[in-house]
Amino acid sequence: MKIVIVGCGYIGMELARQLAAEGHEVTGVRRSRAGLDAIESLPSANGGTIRAVRADVTEPESLGALPDAEAIVFAASSGGRGASAARTVYVEGLAAVIAEYRDREEVPDRLVYTSSTGVYGDHDGAWVDESTPIEPTTEKTRVLAEAERVAIEEAADAGIDGTVARFAGLYGPDRYRLERYLDGPVTAGYLNMVHRDDAAGSVRYLLERDVARGEPVVVVDDEPAEKHAFADWLADQCGVPRPPKRSKAERIAAGDLSEPAKRRILTSKRCKNTFLRELGYTFAFPTFREGYRAAIEAFRDRRD
């Protein structure tokens, strides 16, 4: 399969590696020379190939450099900036990629857009899944919800079947952030997480098994974690004292939070992966216990 990964960054690099290992022809798209060099450093195996192409979704005229493809994965990042930058990348950039392919002789069959479980908003700790109406609570998550519409509806108008992969909080190599939980204080709430390798693996699975066309899929591991319990478990595993903790009310009462940050703290839900499991995906790291093992061992080795 010929697959183009637009925004071949943290997840895209691992996805490219996995796809090439399965014999696919992969093109990773980045806008910086350093990003292109990183893609070119990835190993190929089993007849698969990986190449790098320079393009920028915020510069539609650059998208002519994208090769023809059977499937597109849109995993571009707005770099953690605000809602305006997010709209430029996720909504306008995604629409520009779809427009670029719409009139080609070879129109892609599939599109996977990587979204976020943030589109669900607050459910006061209740469970959510693909049947739960989305209720984004911030400008940025409202942008993500609009991008989901583009990925399904505008892609369909172009003859492309779109799938939305709603990622929970990503963690993994270079993103374990142990100090955040070991040093504290840790604010109460739930953590919905998925390891980088499973985030990439789920997208690979959706493409290879040709499932979930025109649908959203929640990509999260088996077990939402209560933050205080997670922090205590992590400290115990690392062999350090358990961190100080605070309630949501105590954190907000400190008075140093922006309104968006306050909304994030007050937003609570537990995400189910039942649909992804029913589709047949098998997790490499089904819970944080398996996913954090390498980070814990590295931490303990540094201390010894």
What is the element layout, followed by pairings?
Layout (H helix, E strand, L loop, with lengths): L1 E5 L3 H12 L3 E6 L2 H8 L8 E6 L16 E4 L8 H20 L7 E7 L10 E2 L10 H19 L3 E7 L1 E3 L6 H6 L2 E2 L2 E2 L1 E3 H13 L7 E4 L5 E2 H12 L6 E2 L1 H6 L5 H8 L3 E2 L2 H6 L8 H4 L1 H11 L1
Parallel strand pairs: 1-2, 1-4, 2-3, 4-5, 5-7, 6-15, 7-12, 8-11, 9-14
Antiparallel strand pairs: 10-13
Helix pairs in contact: 1-6, 3-4
Description:
The protein is an alpha/beta fold. The protein has a domain at about 1-175 and about 195-225 and about 280-285: Rossmann fold. It is about 40% helix and about 20% strand. The protein has 12 helices and 15 strands. The chain has helices at about 10-20, 35-40, 85-100, 140-155, 180-185, 195-210, 225-240, 250-255, 260-265, 275-280, 290, 295-304; strands at about 1-5, 25-30, 50-55, 70-75, 110-115, 125-130, 160-165, 170, 185, 190, 195, 215-220, 225, 245, 270. Helix 1 crosses helix 6 and helix 3 (about 85-100) packs parallel to helix 4.
Q: Which oligomeric state applies? A: single chain
Q: What's the number of extended β-strand segments?
A: 15
Mean of residue pLDDT?
Answer: 96
Report the CATH topology name of the domain at 2-173 and 193-225 and 280-286: Rossmann fold
Helix fraction by DSSP (H/I, runs of at least 4): 40-55%
- So, the CATH homologous superfamily of the domain at 2-173 and 193-225 and 280-286? NAD(P)-binding Rossmann-like Domain
H/E element string?
EHEHEEHEEHEEHEEEHEEHEHHEHHH
Determine and state the CATH class of the domain at 2-173 and 193-225 and 280-286.
Alpha Beta
Secondary structure tally, helices: 12
Q: Uncertain segments of ≥5 residues (pLDDT<50)?
A: none
CATH-derived architecture of the domain at 2-173 and 193-225 and 280-286: 3-Layer(aba) Sandwich
Strand content: 15-25%
Spatial separation of the terminal alpha carbons: 47 Å
How would you describe the shape? globular
Which sequence of strands runs across the widest sheet?
3-2-1-4-5-7-12
